[in-house]
Every structure is written in structure tokens, then in C-alpha cells.
Amino acid sequence: MDLSLAVPPESTYRLDQMLELLNDDERNRAGRFRHDDDRRTFITAHALTRLGLSRHHPGITPTEWTFEDGPWGRPDPTNAGIGELRVNLSHTRDMAAVVAADAIQVGVDVEHMTQEDWIYETIDTVFSADECTSLLRLDEASRRERFYLYWTLKESYIKARGMGVSLPLTQISFAPSDGDGVVLEVEPGVEDEPSAWQFAIFHPSPTVRGAVGARTDELDLVSSWPTLR
């Protein structure tokens, strides 16, 4: 399983190089962004997706990848000879992440840690009762860190399931376990077996937090920072 990470470059020349990797639809979508930062992040994430997939399947160049949206809108690679290759991407301010795996449900999320308190207004709509209780018991610094731990884990899980927010988020619960591990619990309405899942947490920068979730017995994750061209 491959995790690729990248910081959107400031250089217009490097962005133009990455833009050459994208197809016409992706270029058109990139051109519709009003803000340069959003455009840079979009181009970086989609170029990184192609580079990450080619790292996983070196016989296919980045420009050769083709995709088809699944039933819940997630793009899946459709090239011949790749088997059940799964890919998932995420991007936030100052970071893009892509994970690719063979025949494994997998999802990734990265989030920029804001210092604004509006984030706590959402907890009772997306976090379980146990998660909310654990957050309120912590001091401010620990609470913010735990908030993003839960948020990225939950996002990685629902993205791996491929059903997005159609899943009842308040019925999905995470808790830290021994070491760097986490425990997943779900209520009956989620219809899943928590023990079938593995998660990895990563901190790619001082202000970005990330997580990968995968339905697998063992999460063998290899990380890289590909050259974006």
C-alpha cells in the first residue's frame, strides 16, 4: 500500500509541469477555481494521484491513467491489467495525500489544524457521544489535537467505505489505544465489522494531521514524497 504526499508548489513553472499530467477534464476543472491557492492544491492532488498510481504500477505512465466515477462519486482507475486497484486522495491547505492499494478498501484524509474555535461547533453532529465526552475532558491543546485525530480517522474510514457522509457519522466512534493505535467501534446501523479495519496516523507537517484507514489484517504502508513533474 502506497501513500504519496506533496506540498503544493509556489512555482508557476512547476504547476504547469504538473498540469501537463492531467487530462482535459481535470485541466478544465482546475481552470474554474477563483483562488490561486485552491487551484494549486487541486492540480497538486490530481498530479500526485497519477504519480502515486504509476509508482504502484510502473508500467503505466502518469498521463495514461483513466478513471470512472463509482456509485458514490469516487473515481476508480479503469486501466487494463491493474486488477482491483483502489485509490483515494485528500487535500487541504499546504498538503495533498494519495493512497493506492490492490484489492483493499482504503481511504486517506489530511486536515490543516486551524486555531479557530468554530471547529467545536460541529462535534455533536459528526462525533459520537463517547468522542464528545473524551474531547471535553481534555485541556485546550490536547482537545484540538484529539479533535483532528478523530476527524481524520473518521474521514479516512468513510472514504474507504466509498459512501461518504451517507454513513451515520455519530454512530462511528474512535478511541486511542495502547501506543499509537486506535480502536474503532460502530453501532448496528453502520453494518460493519470494526475488527476488520486497520488505521495509520501521520503528521506530515507541524500544522497538518492525517490518517489512512484500510479493510485489511495488516496495514503495510509505504510513504513517499514524489517529485511533482
Please outline what is shown here.
The protein is α+β, with helices and mostly antiparallel strands. It contains 6 helices and 11 strands. It folds into 2 domains: about 100 residues, 4'-phosphopantetheinyl transferase domain (Ribosomal Protein L22, Chain A, Alpha-Beta Complex), CATH 3.90.470.20; about 120 residues, Ribosomal Protein L22, Chain A, CATH 3.90.470.20.
Describe the structure.
The chain is of the alpha+beta class and 229 residues long. It folds into two domains: 2-102, 4'-phosphopantetheinyl transferase domain (Ribosomal Protein L22, Chain A, Alpha-Beta Complex); 109-224, 4'-phosphopantetheinyl transferase domain (Ribosomal Protein L22, Chain A). The protein is built from six helices and eleven strands. It has a four-stranded mixed beta sheet, covered by helices on one side. The protein has a three-stranded antiparallel beta sheet with strand order 6-10-9, with helices on one face. Strand 7 (172-176) and strand 8 form a beta hairpin. The two termini are 22 Å apart. The model has no long low-confidence stretch (mean pLDDT 90).
